[in-house]
Write a structure and sequence with these properties.
Blueprint (H helix, E strand, L loop, with lengths): L2 H6 L2 H24 L7 H22 L13
Helix pairs in contact: 2-3
């Protein structure tokens, strides 16, 4: 996703995107482990998109435009 597209989303839409990307990444890890993934490079794209979403969320929260991101969404 491009940063401008992310900024145009609402808070709840950004949260949903993060959850969707995390779920897709979880499933992709299993596919990679079993050798069934056709595109293992997708995991890299997902990690970057999640980071991009969280960065923009925190930027907007710092400006006071949105609520702060939940700590529950963080993964290690």
């Amino acid at each position: 996703m491009k940063p401008q597209e992310i900024r145009e989303l609402s808070d709840t839409e950004r949260d949903e995107k993060i959850k969707d990307f995390q779920e897709e990444m979880f499933n992709l890890k299993f596919q990679i482990a079993t050798g069934k993934s056709e595109n293992p490079g997708r995991i890299r794209i997902l990690r970057r998109d999640i980071a991009r979403l969280r960065t923009i969320q925190s930027e907007l929260a710092a400006k006071g435009e949105t609520a702060a991101p939940d700590a529950d969404n963080k993964t290690t």
